[in-house]
Design goal:
- The structure holds two protein chains of two kinds.
- By secondary structure, chain A is mainly α.
- Chain A is 66% helix and 1% strand.
- The longest helix of chain A has 36 residues.
- Chain B is built from six helices and no strands.
- The termini of chain B are far apart.
- The chains are: A mainly alpha, B mainly alpha.
């Protein structure tokens, strides 16, 4: 008796003693977290805020261009700076981190890993990105940023953007390494879910392109601070950045969006993804065509810039070829939906809308490379960028709605998300189509202070088109606000259950939200859709997947 | 012939550990590729500007530049020698020869320091101010980034040396060292491109 009671007494004593490593709570739990789900949610939330700021800036610039001589909001000098804020914040503080946040939270679950490969590096990347992004935006208030007149603030902007890019690179390395090394037993790379695979191929190209952008910014920074100021300083800084918004680099941003759509479509079609391996090859091709570091405005010795690649063979060939993988993927998704019994859930609606936007944006590239149309350097390219980037954001929001049970432990309010994201997609079309028309009649990509001249057509027509485009961007911002509201007003009541959509991939085998370590046990993985196999084993044995 | 007892032992034995994921190695490979792209992008910019100037009938480097082959060549030779010593580290660790591994770590760090020294000497000898010309700015930026890569590689190797000293890295688990060595090789390859573009072609 004594023997059995002694340990019990010791246990009670130990339990009464203060825990040496009590888990932090409140702000400390967030700031010190290495949990990929927490970091991913932070990335998603803050990038949506930055996107909202970018959208508002874009709308104001659009209004500024309408009858600029009589109804100026900022004035010519400020308008051009606000435009650069709109574009750089949209990509580096909005679209890329939104995708990375979703990937940081979801990819470990998809591949059956307990966490990301480098959780502390991911956390460091988030905080570096957040602080640098804040500094980058605040330099605008100090008369910095591209076209700013305070040289110190302009240099600080360049440095902050470099830090943002480094943070994005680190976060990307963590996600890509997770897929390459931490997949569950049985999950070969060709059985990886399409979103995870798209992060491998798209992320790998990001890792080759983003450093080039950082290098160009570093050169510009050193030139301004310590060099002969030979590369144009603040007035040409935007030339060092803008190539990432043009084809072909623009396209690689959308690759994870295609992966998200590829994971949503089969679940809502209630059918295995048709030709999964072919879809992986198409995603790989889409990513490789997006390596566009060679297509940037080169520095010249007189401080100007030159782009000899424009109208060159490779640029034209890639402009046309880049459409094919997206077209192929759209075909596969049509096949999958046709072969299944689709249910029109919100994630599927958003995925289809985003697929349409991205396709239109990339297809528009064919027009850009046809020399006779003379669309290069016009707002046709702005329209392309809007379609691809907003399409990517809508796909990411489809992903957030789809994986909300794993991210938040709740479903998002269907009607609010569907309305918000649909408004975003429609707003993108209303914003892009007038700009494309204006570009086709000769409106230059951005004219500081309004429209000076157009190659052909009536200036007032172009101004009206600009106003319609600004209204479209405003609608997009309104849609984003609704989606933001949906994120804050997650569905009340009981949890959504572990697998509310009857998913096909590993993330749906664990609880919602997942426990620490993600999985207690993993099912046998013999295909790219292990849960589909388990659910429809007899039927799926007769299906062709490749 | 196996007895029933033997079979029982095998059936209750724990499964073999899963193949060790090479997380650090793959992560380092991706980081190395990104770091290389930073320098290579600037080298491409350098080559393009140089080509523009020369095709205009001018000389690339300013007249006052004192660009000698020796510092660049010595830097290249130093890094090539370090490729042997980092291979020596891995070989020694794989054979659980900690003495030789630590010796090789030390020699590699020494060679890295020598490279930085000779590069700084080359900067002093060049005699150009960074603010004086675009050429000088590019040369200092590119070679400065290589020095930063070598410094990062030395730090990475030093951390791994401490881990080896503490017994964390052995013949069976030398992944951290292999990752550091991979980064070192990429750095040497990048410098080879820089050496050709700046020192040899001038």
């Amino acid at each position: 008796m004594t023997v059995t009671e002694a340990p019990r007494a010791a246990a009670v004593e130990a339990a009464a003693a203060p825990s040496p490593s009590a888990p932090p709570t409140g702000l400390a739990a967030v700031v010190g977290s290495g949990d990929p789900r927490t970091i991913g949610k932070l990335f998603v939330g803050t990038s949506l805020l930055f996107l909202l700021a970018s959208g508002v800036a874009g709308t104001l610039v659009g209004v500024e261009q309408y009858q600029s001589d009589s109804s100026q909001i900022f004035g010519a000098d400020t308008a051009v700076r606000v435009f650069t804020l709109h574009s750089t914040a949209g990509l580096f503080l909005g679209v890329l981190p939104l995708l990375l946040g979703l990937a940081t939270a979801v990819v470990p679950l998809q591949v059956g890993a307990a966490t990301v490969a480098f959780p502390r590096a991911s956390a460091a990347a988030y905080w570096t990105w957040l602080v640098s992004g804040g500094v980058m935006l605040s330099t605008y208030a100090l008369d910095g940023g591209p076209f700013g007149s305070d040289s110190d603030a302009v240099a600080l902007y360049a440095l902050a953007l470099i830090a943002v890019i480094v943070a994005l690179i680190v976060a990307t390395i963590s996600v890509v390494t997770t897929v390459l090394t931490l997949r569950a037993p049985g999950m070969s790379l060709r059985r990886a879910p399409l979103f995870s695979w798209s992060m491998v191929v798209g992320g790998s190209v990001w890792l080759l392109v983003l450093p080039v952008q950082a290098a160009m910014l570093l050169l510009a920074f050193l030139d301004m601070r310590y060099g002969p100021n030979a590369f144009g300083g603040a007035s040409l800084l935007y030339d060092r950045i803008a190539w990432v918004f043009w084809q072909p680099t623009l396209y690689v941003v959308a690759v994870p969006a295609l992966g998200i759509i590829g994971d949503i479509v089969p679940v809502f079609a209630r059918r295995r993804h048709q030709r999964h391996k072919a879809a992986m090859v198409l995603l790989g091709l889409a990513a490789s065509f997006g390596f566009g570091a060679w297509a940037q405005v080169g520095v010249t010795m007189d401080g100007g810039g030159s782009a000899p690649w424009v109208d060159g063979g490779p640029w034209q060939v890639i402009g046309v070829l880049a459409v094919l993988p997206v077209l192929g993927l759209l075909g596969l998704w049509t096949l999958t939906l046709g072969a299944g019994r689709p249910k029109l859930g919100t994630p599927l609606v958003l995925a289809m809308l985003s697929g349409l936007l991205v396709f239109l944006g990339i297809a528009g590239g064919i027009g850009t490379v046809i020399v006779a149309l003379d669309l290069d350097g016009t707002t046709w390219m702005t329209a392309q960028a809007l379609l691809v980037l907003i399409g990517t954001v809508v796909a990411a929001l489809a992903g957030v709605a789809f994986w909300a049970p794993k991210l938040y432990g709740k479903l998002l309010p269907d009607s609010l998300v569907r309305l918000g994201a649909t408004l975003m997609a429609l707003g993108a079309l209303v914003a892009a189509v007038p700009l494309a028309i204006a570009g086709s009649i000769g409106q230059a990509r951005f004219v500081a202070g309004g429209i000076d001249s157009v190659a052909s057509g009536d200036v007032s027509t172009v101004e009206t088109l600009d106003l319609v485009s600004a209204i479209g961007l405003g609608v997009t911002v309104l849609g984003a606000l609704l989606v933001g509201g949906a994120l804050l007003a997650r569905r009340r009541g009981d949890g959504p259950g572990d697998d509310p959509w009857e998913g096909h991939t590993l993330e749906w085998t664990t609880s919602s939200p997942p426990p620490i370590g993600n999985f207690a046990t993993l099912p046998a993985i013999t295909s790219e859709a292990p849960l589909y196999d388990a659910r429809y084993a007899p039927a799926s044995s007769t299906e062709s997947t490749d | 012939m196996a007895t029933a007892t033997d079979l029982e032992i095998f059936s209750t034995a724990p499964p073999p550990p899963p193949a060790r994921p090479r997380v650090l190695l793959i992560g380092s490979a991706l980081a190395s590729g990104s770091a290389a792209m930073v320098v290579l992008a600037l080298v491409a910019q350098y080559a393009r500007l140089r080509s523009d100037v020369i095709s205009g009938g001018n000389t690339w480097l300013p007249e006052e530049a004192n660009a000698q082959l020796t510092p660049g060549n010595m830097g290249m030779v130093t890094l090539v020698m370090s490729m042997v010593t980092v291979a020596w580290i891995v070989h020694a660790l794989r054979h659980d020869d900690r003495t030789h591994a630590l010796l090789a770590f030390g020699v590699t760090l020494l060679l890295g320091a020598a490279f930085i020294n000779v590069t700084v000497f080359g900067w002093q000898q060049l005699g150009l101010g960074a603010a004086g010309s675009t050429q000088a700015l590019l040369i200092y930026t590119i070679t400065g980034l290589v020095v930063a890569m070598v410094g990062a590689g030395m730090l990475f190797l030093a951390v791994m040396a401490f881990r080896a000293l503490g017994g964390q890295l052995t013949g069976r688990s030398a992944e951290g060292v292999v990752a550091a060595v991979l980064f070192w090789y990429v750095t040497v390859a990048v410098y080879a491109v820089v050496w050709y573009a700046i020192t040899i072609t001038k």
